[in-house]
UniProtKB/TrEMBL annotation:
Biological source species: Nocardioides daeguensis
All copies of domain UspA, residue ranges: 8-133, 141-279
PANTHER family: ADENINE NUCLEOTIDE ALPHA HYDROLASES-LIKE SUPERFAMILY PROTEIN
Alphabetized InterPro entries for the sequence: UspA
Protein name: UspA domain-containing protein
Lineage: superkingdom: Bacteria
Length: 279
């Protein structure tokens, strides 16, 4: 991942979820803010021009202008586009440091697509995507990042540390893994020894990842954790006490271009704080 510091792009459609996404993005005052509104010009069924979208987009523009002023970001750029929502957002994010969207969207915008806008952009965006979900706790000051031995994991950890350096938060790097042996009751202790070795290997992996990142971010507190629980579940549990959950997207094969990894999909659906998908 090579982060372009040019701007944060926020998809905005006037919904409460979009307001939350805009507030999250606006809190990063070190980066330029670009608010993108997309009106779908053609009815996907009838093929006619949707004049109702003109009125809706003007309402969204007014709401976005008022919102950025209230958030102390009157310098934000508001960009109105017409076309399919996801392609327009992806094009707007081509030179962005990240794309931020709400977890749900306005009916007019979301209704132009099969599935949610957030899921689609998380799969295809050329930059990290933050999907702003409601936070379980608003008093915590730590970023949780899921790590394993993949290149995407190292990118996710670096992204978490870059944000933590700007926000002053700590980072908890969690390696969740499932071990059948860790859940088996034995009488001779043999399986238990294997489970202990698995835990030791997992702890070594996450410590080495954190050590490498700590050298680049000496001012960020990074805490390593290895937990013998499936990664998706342990990260969702950890998100209850996090300001942001960061995970990597998966590989670059033919299917990866269309689908997120199972862990990414799970946390997008169930996390209890904003989620960043990093590629």
């Amino acid at each position: 991942m090579s982060e372009n510091p040019s701007c944060i792009v926020v998809g905005y459609d006037g919904s409460a979820s979009a307001d939350a996404a805009l507030a999250w993005a606006a809190s990063d005052s070190a980066t330029d803010l670009r608010v993108v509104l997309v009106g779908t010009a053609m009815d996907p069924v009838l093929g006619g021009y949707r004049h109702v979208m003109d009125r809706a987009v003007e309402e969204w523009r007014t709401a976005a202008t008022e919102r950025v002023a209230a958030l102390g970001r009157p310098d934000a750029t508001i960009d109105v586009r017409h076309g399919p929502v996801v392609p327009e957002l992806l094009q707007a994010a081509e030179k962005a440091s990240m794309l931020v969207v709400g977890s749900t969207g306005h009916g007019l915008a979301a209704g132009t697509l099969t599935g949610s806008v957030s899921q689609h952009v998380a799969r295809h965006a050329p930059c990290p995507v933050v999907v702003v979900r409601p936070r379980h706790s608003t008093v915590v000051d730590r970023i949780v990042v899921g790590v394993d031995d993949s290149p995407e994991s190292a990118q996710a950890l670096r992204f978490a540390c870059e944000r933590a350096r700007r926000t002053g938060e700590g980072v908890t790097a969690i390696h969740g893994y499932f071990s059948v042996l860790a859940h088996v009751l034995t009488f001779d202790g043999a399986e238990s020894d294997v489970a202990d070795r698995q835990l030791a290997a997992a702890e070594k992996l996450v410590r080495e990842l954190c050590r490498d990142c700590a050298a680049e971010f000496p001012d960020v507190e990074i805490e390593p954790e290895a937990i013998p629980v499936r990664a998706g579940q342990v990260l969702v549990d950890a998100s209850r006490a996090a300001s942001l959950l960061v995970v990597g997207s998966r590989g670059r094969d033919a299917f990866a271009e269309m689908l997120l990894g199972s862990v990414s999909q799970h946390v997008l659906a169930h996390a209890q704080c904003p989620v960043a998908i990093v590629r």
